[in-house]
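Sequence in, structure out.
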Amino acid sequence: MLWREASEPTRAGFAVSRQLRRAVERNRVRRRLRAAYRAAREAAPARVALVIVGRPAALREPFEGLLAQLRGALAAIPGPRAA
C-alpha cells in the first residue's frame, strides 16, 4: 500500500501487478481488494490518498486474512481517524 497525506477526504485507488498474466485474475484481485477496503475503511485516517497494490497472493489468501492484513496496514498509517 502506498499513501500520502491529502487535504481532501480519504480516497483509494487500486492497482494490480502484471505478474498476474490473465486479465480475469487481475480483475478478481481488484474486486477482492475493493470489497476488503469497503469492509475496513473505518481503520483509514480521515485525510489520505491511498493506492492499494494487488499481488498474486491476494488470489490465494482467504478473504478474512486479506481483510485483516488491510486493516493492519490502514491502522499503521498515522493521522486522525474519521468520526
